[in-house]
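Reply to dn_fold:

You asked what the input looked like. This is it:
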Amino acid sequence: MTDYPYFPMFVDLSARQVLVVGGGRIAARRVGTLAQFCPRVTVVASAIHPDIAALAAEGRVKVCQRAYREEDLDGTELVLACTDNGVLNAGIVRACRARGIPVNDASDRHRCDFLFPGIARSGAVVAGVSAGGGDHRLARRATEAVRECLEHKLT
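and this is what came back:
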């Protein structure tokens, strides 16, 4: 990590394969967001949050209900490690880096190649909000403020 803030970047995920390892509450929030931008999200986890199961039932994400295996990375272009096991997440990060796959570790911002922003969206306007991965409450409040602004100014 440097003293520089992260550079905001918008990426076209419409034709990319995204893998989310983990099926809990944090994974569910991130998968719900990703499903708005990417039709090829795969979730690998032994236990699946009901919100992820609902997205799978709608055909919006693919679920592999089982333990993660390194071969799950084959063909993947972006990975989110969202398990509640920091050791497993660190192993996923190492495997992704060895393959040149950008990875986000939900348990440790210092192991992230990118941050997962708060999203505020109104039609074609999309704003991503980050507090540098450190103050999640601040990022959440800022995201809500941007959402409110978009709702009032663009509708």
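The chain has a mean pLDDT of 92.
Hope that clears it up.
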